[in-house]
Amino acid sequence: MTRYILPLFFGILGTVVLVSLGTWQVQRLAWKTDVLAEIDARIASDPVAVPIEPDPDKDRFLPVTARGTITIEELHVLASTRDVGAVYRVIAAFETEDGRRLLLDRGWIKTPQKNAARAPVDATIVGNLHWPDEIDSYTPENDLAGNIWFARDVDTMAAALTTEPVLIVLRETSENDPPVTPLPLDSAGIPNDHLEYVVTWYGLAIVWVIMTLYYLRRLRKTKKA
Fold first, then answer.
1. CA 42 to chain centre
2. CA distances from 163 to 29, 141, 157, 203 (A)
3. How far is the C-alpha of 175 from the C-alpha of 124, rounded, in Å?
4. What are the φ/ψ torsions at residue 102 (nearest 5 degrees)?
5. Can you point out the beta strands (E) in the chain?
6. Which residue, 103, 112, 87, is CA-closest to 50?
7. Secondary structure letter of residue 149 according to DSSP
8. What distance in Å separates the CA atoms of residue 189 and residue 39, rounded to the nearest whole number?
9. What CA–CA distance (Å, rounded) separates 161 from 154?
10. In the prediction, which pLDDT does 225 show?
11. Do 167 and 155 form a contact (C-beta atoms < 8 A)?
């Protein structure tokens, strides 16, 4: 009987640990789902004037509205969409009626339209403040000569266009037939992998139980032999 104690102990211990990890991920999944719902609700709420000194943490996703001129000063950020594939995000300098210069993510254009002329236009815009975190160790250096950027780094883009380090991701514009298709901000780009972790940990727990029972069965057969 004693020969079964140690395998049974580790079998039970491993199962408890794996089930606990799976249960913790279930709780994390519920928490993350609530967080994403709150973000979506915040994004879609009524817009306000752009704060004088917005805070990247407190004001992230804040819906704002402004009136001004979308200039011809642009940065092109290589991106992709599900339906079109490779596109460029157009980041333009936006001059407000009260004299501020802000960054405006107008949306996307197809790659052949990169060098097409886009005239300055007066418009009322509605969008959301955002400070994207898109740079990691795999991000290439921006091709400044070719005006091809690989991430929306607000501080660097602001320095390039001589604007405040404030990015508005366009949602609505008063332009007639805008040449750039808006790509509004939503929570879809925020990772939520907790369901995969739930399946992984519970799956490992099932495998652990099966392997433990298999090993105990082998021990029993060995004893009989």
1. 15
2. 39, 21, 8, 51
3. 8
4. -125, 165
5. 48-49, 63-81, 85-96, 101-110, 121-129, 167-173
6. 103
7. B
8. 12
9. 11
10. 56
11. no
Residue 221 has pLDDT above 90, yes or no: no
Amino acid at site 192:
N
Amino acid identity of 88? Y
Q: Are 124 and 173 in contact (CB under 8 A)?
A: yes
49-70, pLDDT tens digit by residue?
999 999 999 999 999 999 999 9
Reported as half-sphere exposure (CB side, CA atoms, 13 A), residue 12 has a value of 5
Distance CA 49, CA 47 (A): 7
Assess contact for 37 and 213: CB atoms under 8 A. Answer: no
Phi, psi for residue 24 in degrees, rounded to 5: -65, -40
194 and 28 Cβ atoms separated by less than 8 Å: yes
| Residue 60, helix vs strand vs coil | coil
Amino acid at 201: W
C-alpha R_g of the chain: 26
**How far is the C-alpha of 211 from the C-alpha of 191, rounded, in Å?**
33
> Quick check: helix, strand or coil at residue 109?
strand
Extract the tokens encoding 209: 């139980």
62-184 topology per CATH: OB fold (Dihydrolipoamide Acetyltransferase, E2P) (2.40.50)
Lowest mean pLDDT among 84-93, 153-162, 187-196: 187-196
Q: Name the average pLDDT for the chain.
A: 91
Which residue would you say has higher pLDDT here, 3 or 128?
A: 128
